[in-house]
Amino acid sequence: MTEKTEVKIPLSGIGIRHKARASIALIGNPNAGKSTLFNRLTGLRQTTGNFPGVTVEKHQGTVELTRSAFNLIDLPGIYSLDGTSTDERIAVDVTLGRVPGTERPSGLLVVIDATHIYQGLYLLEQLLELQLPTMIALTMIDAAKANGISIDTDALQTALGGIPVYPVSSISGHGLDELKEGLEHITAINSPAIPASWPEFSETAQQLTQQLGEAWQRIDVIQALLQTHPDYAGKLSRQLGTDTVANLRKNLFGDEPPAAVEARHRYQWVKGVIADVQVQAPLYSKISARLIRWTNRPWPATLLFFAVLLLVFQAVFTWATPMMDVIDGASSALGRMIIAQLGENAVSSFLADGVIAGVGSVIIFLPQILILFLFIIILEDTGYLARTSFLMDRVMRTVGLSGQSVIPMLSSFACAVPSIMATRVIPDRRDRIATILAAPFMTCSARLPIYALLIAAFVPNQSVGWLNLQGLVLFGLYLLGILGGLGTAMLLKSSALKGPKPHFMVALPEFRTPNLQTVAIKLFDRGRIFLKRAGTVIFFVAILVWTLAYFPRMDSADYHPDPVVTESVDQTITDNARAAAQMEQSWLGRIGRTIEPVFKPLGWDWRVSSAVVAGFPAREVVVAVMGTIYAVGSDADDQKLSEKLRSAKWPDGRLIFTLPMVLGLLVFYAWCLQCAATLATIRRETNSWRWPIFAWFYMTGIGYTGALVIYQLGSLL
Amino acid sequence: MTLADLAPGDTAKLEKIDTRDPGVIKLMILGMVEDITVRMENIAIGGDPLEVGFFGSSVSLRKEQARHFKVTRITPTPST
């Protein structure tokens, strides 16, 4: 520890950054308000990373207190310490200082949800076996009060043997100052008393630890006895003799699994404590509570679910459009201004047509993506999303998955990348992989631009009954994605990923009002990630495509325009014709011509093929590339582009964009995998190359086949 | 009778638990142990999964896991 000189803090309390000295672990049940408290305590002074070797996110931050600062590490939400899930193992390992690169905590801040102290106290009792200085933050006190629950914190402190309990409301900030004051002294607190909930076990552990000597820590003994850590269990048997250990276990657990016996003992004790400290006032059913109960019943809940989906769907389109127009206009204006300033040359083209048009065509989707994420984050924060897994479990089981796959699949409608990461909650590995491979089928927000473009250009804007034909086609495409995803899951689960029927137990959280600060932070994070991707992958692809399209420069001597063009008075036509000719003989054009035969059976000419291939790193690029290739300049004005598409012809005069071809193209987009970020995420989450490679070939394969079939059959009709 | 035999709205006391199923143990870790009172909150369309409430929490579980929990019913099934 570094030596610190005394720093006199002025009365106004100006915060002076202290060098963080020690680590405190923030630990508690899922949905207990840990993240909200973490954000409250660290503000924006937090970083996100990964624990080495596992796909568990590591959130760390600095808590600035009046006289000191701490490093606060946010551990994944867990229900017990002897679980075998990755989250639980990481939480234990961090707390014991067994994770390289993460400092061992000198104290624990246990977050207990006041509306769920039953489970919270169970975990606490297990944590007390670790004998680290411990403090309790009792959260959700507002919600508790609203439910008629009142907790006598003094009685609770006494029942726990003197562990300080700090009631806090993360939303209002009530109690935070006292908590922070308490945190200043956390390392000065003595180790807590041995937990009282299972005396026979705790005493046995104590005796053994003393008996075994230096090499054994108390927690190692505990993990050995409970058989939650195979190394220690083996070591114990070797040191004391297999028979001795077997007898010990028989005395403690009988013939039952240790976890069951532990649960039984500790929860009996917790029940007693709750009887002493918690008072539940009789709840007279308020109308609002009754209403929520009713919407929880299966049929109303399912209908509500579809209503919510419809709402999100609508909002993404209608709300986003004005914002998108603004961004579109701004980038077009910027491009024109550059050309005006610099004249028509390579530099101005690079900036206007390459950078601004390319990246701009992606940034334009920021409003849509933010709206989508906003809904998902709010639904998640209110606890509603977890309930959908309960509703949809039956549907999921028809394809061999469980309700826990619903949330990742729903998130895929925004973007597959975070949803693939969200599959971490699925305990069964086969289920998880099946969900990961199904997720990219769900119509992500990046597919919207190309859908919107093609539908606007080729689907007539008419009404079918009281529905709009264009909207109907869009809905059909979404459906196609869902069917593709579920179908894939079913296929995999009945063959390569066949396994035992998945368990399904989730603790269903209560409904609660979303915390605006948490929502804002998460949304900001998502927006940042999106822009970062736009700034890197898509930026490079756009520049690359531009370079390939711009070079080599066409020699005027080689330009032989059609007499129709030379005689035309309209400057746009002559400009566009020249630009098209330039495009054809550029590198991009030559590459396009080479690959044209591959896609000709689908009815695509070299321009469409080039645009699609260029879109493989990131779908969003396709619209920009189409714009470049069809030579409408940097405006990427969809109106003009759609006209161009409608009139695009083969050399022999036939229209390129016929109905079967367009439908085929749409199906191709619905099913093929065109996203480097998704592939990278699949690789990371499955820890192998096998699955992303499989996903790419599989999805592109059926996309190609689908487009082929539709075009060929459609053209025959 | 077991947990799987309850109707929505029923309350019951958990009597004996068959701990051989790992899924059951996970439920015990969440607090479903002997001697507590539970309430059948909800049954999904199709009869599975079930939502069971106790001590202010709700847990979702499959019918086949519910069969491992023997109960004695406290309130009769509502007539509707």
Textual characterization of the structure:
The complex is a heterodimer of chains A (717) and B (80). In chain A, strands 2-3-4-1-5-6-8 form a 7-stranded mixed β-sheet, sandwiched between helices. In chain A, strands 7-9 form a two-stranded antiparallel sheet. In chain A, strands 10-11 form a two-stranded antiparallel ribbon. Helix content of chain A is 60%, strand content 8%. The termini of chain A are far apart. In chain A, α3 packs across α11. Chain A is an alpha/beta fold. Chain A has 32 helices and 12 strands. Chain A has 3 domains: 1-199 and 255-283, Rossmann fold, CATH 3.40.50.300; 302-493, no CATH class; 541-716, no CATH class. Chain B is 15% helix and 36% strand. Chain B has a single domain (3-73), classed as Ferrous iron transport protein A (FeoA) (SH3 type barrels), CATH 2.30.30. In chain B, 46% of the residues are buried. With 80 residues, chain B is α+β, with helices and mostly antiparallel strands. In chain B, β3 and β4 (57-61) form a beta hairpin. Chain A binds chain B through residues 79-80, 83, 115-116, 118-119, 122, 147, 149, 256-257, 259-260, 263-264, 267-268, 270-271, 274, 296-299, 302, 389-391, 393-394, 403, 503-508, 510, and chain B through 8, 17, 19, 22-31, 33-36, 41-46, 48-49, 51, 54-62, 65.
